[in-house]
Amino acid sequence: MKKSALFLLSLSLIAASCTKDDEDNTTTSTGNTTKSMTLNLSNLAPVEADERYEGWVIVDGAPVSTGLFTVSDQGVLSETTFDIPTATLDAATAFVLSIEPFPDTDPAPSDIKVLGGAFNSATAMVDVSHMAALGSTYNTASATYILATPTTNDMMDELSGVWFLDNSSGSPMQGLNLPSLPANWVYEGWAVMNGMPISTGRFTALDMQDDAANFSGMDGTGPSYPGEDFIQNAPAGLSFPTDLTNATIVISIEPQPDNSPKPFAFKPFVSMPAGASAHTAISMTNQVDSNFPSGTVTR
């Protein structure tokens, strides 16, 4: 009886001496231990069928993959917990999330990095402001546009053009206050017509014309700001000129290169005016807080 009691007591003392780290670690069949990393992320948009999200931890300055996952239309991650070698996860200084082609033969991360954050003890707060992603918060950014068609001499079509400028002072001025983007990202304007997003052009400079004039008229030259007149070459299902009085206007941040004709998930500015007038400055709504992804990564 005494021996049995002593044996049970020794077992209880051993169990009590186990630390939380011991509970979190799992020994693999090869003898290596793994540790769980958990993602708690919001506002992540679904990716295309030939793409996947991939997590990376930064160890000694180099990225180490933590695994792939997808996101449903409701924003639910297909995987939130990943088993990582303990030594790797303990040595990680940061977490980065990228979008990768699928299948992918390149073991390195793509240039499309959407989130990042440094580990502070067991947790990394991740968002787009990390230097590996967009590098800016956008909370103080602003955007203004007018409806006008400066590339035509017809005053009857003035509601068929969008230009990202501010004329509230009486003279056209820069209407966009946006952070500079890393080399692999670019801004793009959009006008949504009958549910179809139509690009106004891509740009990085805020006080110059953008890279496209696919629909503009030929009678004049547009101002030195991003924008477009929707006058000719209308896509199937639309007719130009049009009336953008109540149209949704969007500024998105697009990866470069980009394999999708649709706006990317990063849409820092949206305007849904109720009866906009021509030649009148319209302020766009900053929706960074509700649109940009963020969250925590716990190890």
Describe the protein.
The structure is a single chain. This protein folds into 2 domains: 32-133; 142-291, no CATH class. It is built from 4 helices and 21 strands. The protein is mainly beta and 299 residues long. Helix content is 10%, strand content 38%.
Top keywords for this entry?
mainly beta, five-stranded antiparallel sheet, 299 residues, 2 domains, 10% helix, 21 strands, nine-stranded antiparallel sheet, single chain
Describe, in short, the structure shown:
The chain has 299 residues and is mainly beta. The protein has four helices and 21 strands. Strands 1, 2, 3, 4, 5, 6, 7, 8 and 21 form a nine-stranded antiparallel beta sheet that branches. Strands 9, 10, 13, 16 and 19 form a five-stranded antiparallel beta sheet that branches.
